[in-house]
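Progress report, Aim 2. The chain analyzed during this reporting quarter is listed below.
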Amino acid sequence: MKKFFSVLSFLFISAFVYGQNLTGKWLGELPQNNKEIKFKLELDILQTGKELTGSSTFVTADNHTVVFALKGKVDGRNITLDEFKAISCQCEDGKYDFCLKKMRGTFHVDSLKATFVIDGTWTSDLSYNGKEYLKSVCAPGLFTIVRPAFIRPLDGYYRKNNIANSTKVTGYAGIRETDAVFARRIWREIDLRKKVNQYMASPKRRLIDVLLSAIDARDIFAYDAVDSKTNPGGDGFITRLTAEQARSKLSDSSVVDIFDKKTGDKVGSKVVAGEFNPDEVVKFRLKEDWLFDKQRGVFEPRIVGIAPLIKIKTVVDVTNAEYQPAFWIYFPEARSVLATKEAINRNNDATGLSYDDVFMKRLFSSYIVKQSNDKDERIRDYTQGVDRLYESDRIKKNLMNWELGLWAY
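Predicted structure tokens for the chain:
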């Protein structure tokens, strides 16, 4: 009985090699029993993170075709990929044995031929003859598969990758409770409509888009901002939200009636989230602690949380005038994401500033809306109009004066 070898291969290019996404169709050839005769391969691959799925199509010289499902993983430049079941077989039952392969390969680039190359070895435990799976008698072999290396033209004269390839952030200096001789919790708001803050709303790299993408990827988590007995103030990072729940908090919702498909009678209703418009997020709230560390002699702010602010509809077509947090994000957890996202600067394209740099270096304008107090009052609870800004400046000035009052010359 003739033995034909179907193959599956997947090309992995690590993140630092052109940033290539490998989802798509790949073509190749496989020698038959290490001879001159070669058979056609078509690889249809889907890459999801480090997980690989898809199918491999193997065509013999007389146009018999078998399609196998595949799965695998990538680790740096190393590839692990297995064909594990037959999807279809256009072949004469029992005439051919097609081997299901376990492939192990390594990726490299042939710069002279402008191709991506996978070299490796394969083994096989099972074969498929169009009707059933049998114990494979296929001998292990070698394989080489290539793909044209389409490299995007460099949009400029140097490659900007320092921020995108950041692997860690600069941590805070440790502080002991006994060394924190003064602490004050402050809540402040950043208004993106101010000229100095408009870069955070740039369509090229909105801050809200960065945060939502990280939430979708589960790199960070959103926390419910609802005030409750277990979460006074709603900013205690108590209840995690799913990505869908977090997005629904940013969208206006509406009540939609549910009708029976057969009778047409109304059988109930449901709340449906509307479409989210990122341009509607014009404010962010920060929760931060101002600490004086007597061990280092440093008075500094440390951001604890960040929340996008929205206006909530209280009844139909009536919107609350005050901005409310949609959800809270634990800032120390988000720093590893913010450090890899470049902040767009209107004055200089080569600043090399990430969003983590923006917050660590305090490159934004803001105003205080609350400081910790025995009555848990916000500034708007005891002042009105322009007096809110005066009170915000007074609190800010008191913080600075406290530090200046420590020193004598």
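The longest strand covers residues 298-315. Residues 4-19 have pLDDT under 50 and may be disordered. These observations will guide the mutagenesis work planned for the next reporting period.
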